[in-house]
Amino acid sequence: MTPAATKIELPGIEKFKSGKVREVYDLGDQYLFVASDRISAFDVVMPDGIPDKGSVLNMISKFWFDRTGDVVKNHMISTDVADFPAELQEHAELLKGRSMLVKKAELLPVECIVRGYLIGSGWKEYQKSGTIGGMPLRAGYEMAGKLDEPIFTPSTKADEGHDENISTEQMKEIVGEELGQKLVDISLKLYKTAADYALTKGIIIADTKFEFGMIGDELILIDEVLTPDSSRFWPADTYKPGSSPFSFDKQFVRDYLETLDWDKTPPGPVLPDEVIEKSREKYLEAYRLLTGEELSC
């Protein structure tokens, strides 16, 4: 097993932004996205990474960008380092599998969340008020129950702190009525297209978040898409409503952290090898099930 790549440095290349997992480099008329192997839980980045995680996220995004281009255009140009500008070729070994050359777009300041199942903050809201995203739901749902129809629940996109859930009407006030409705329609179509496909591969996509941007007057899908980090992936063969299903993402990390006397503030605790390896196996399994291929980078 190769060591986790938690620090990504490309000397001489201008870094535009550094996120919890991904580094973004400004190449003039394009961006380079590089997914590290960092893992965060409870909004804290852990000192240890999960080997191959960045490649899984990057290549799953590529898989979905390729499959959903007929629903909405996206920002992906290439994940093949041979297509990258000359100044990146000396970093080819580091970039292989975990990087994506993308078009520059003007980011829309909202996150487009689609929920197909009642879990997480949606379940908490439903228990409290019988609503999700402020919208009334019928009585009788169980935890992790499948919703009669997927529901669009947007949030603000905060640079600092936590995103805030908003209503669809509030989102339309931010981006405009026509564009707002387009975000709703495209997000729901993307989710349904992906969820139907994933189910044939043994994966339930319980919910997911999309981000969009504008290139001129054209709306495009950006960021990562339908990965285990931006979605809840559940194994279909063990799913049953009424309890919180196991998931293909940070489950081992979160479960381990919950056993510790840790106040969920930085710095995060060191992760045992067993937790790292089990997490890695789940990310790789998600990729294998979805694509039908082993990850090769």
TrEMBL record:
<keyword id="KW-0436">Ligase</keyword>
<dbReference type="GO" id="GO:0004639">
    <property type="term" value="F:phosphoribosylaminoimidazolesuccinocarboxamide synthase activity"/>
</dbReference>
<dbReference type="InterPro" id="IPR001636">
    <property type="entry name" value="SAICAR_synth"/>
</dbReference>
<dbReference type="InterPro" id="IPR028923">
    <property type="entry name" value="SAICAR_synt/ADE2_N"/>
</dbReference>
<protein>
    <recommendedName>
        <fullName>Phosphoribosylaminoimidazole-succinocarboxamide synthase</fullName>
        <ecNumber>6.3.2.6</ecNumber>
    </recommendedName>
</protein>
<feature type="domain" description="SAICAR synthetase/ADE2 N-terminal">
    <location>
        <begin position="16"/>
        <end position="265"/>
    </location>
</feature>
<dbReference type="GO" id="GO:0005737">
    <property type="term" value="C:cytoplasm"/>
</dbReference>
<dbReference type="GO" id="GO:0006189">
    <property type="term" value="P:'de novo' IMP biosynthetic process"/>
</dbReference>
<keyword id="KW-0547">Nucleotide-binding</keyword>
<dbReference type="InterPro" id="IPR018236">
    <property type="entry name" value="SAICAR_synthetase_CS"/>
</dbReference>
<dbReference type="GO" id="GO:0005524">
    <property type="term" value="F:ATP binding"/>
</dbReference>
<keyword id="KW-0658">Purine biosynthesis</keyword>
<comment type="similarity">
    <text>Belongs to the SAICAR synthetase family.</text>
</comment>
<comment type="pathway">
    <text>Purine metabolism; IMP biosynthesis via de novo pathway; 5-amino-1-(5-phospho-D-ribosyl)imidazole-4-carboxamide from 5-amino-1-(5-phospho-D-ribosyl)imidazole-4-carboxylate: step 1/2.</text>
</comment>
<keyword id="KW-0067">ATP-binding</keyword>
<dbReference type="Pfam" id="PF01259">
    <property type="entry name" value="SAICAR_synt"/>
</dbReference>
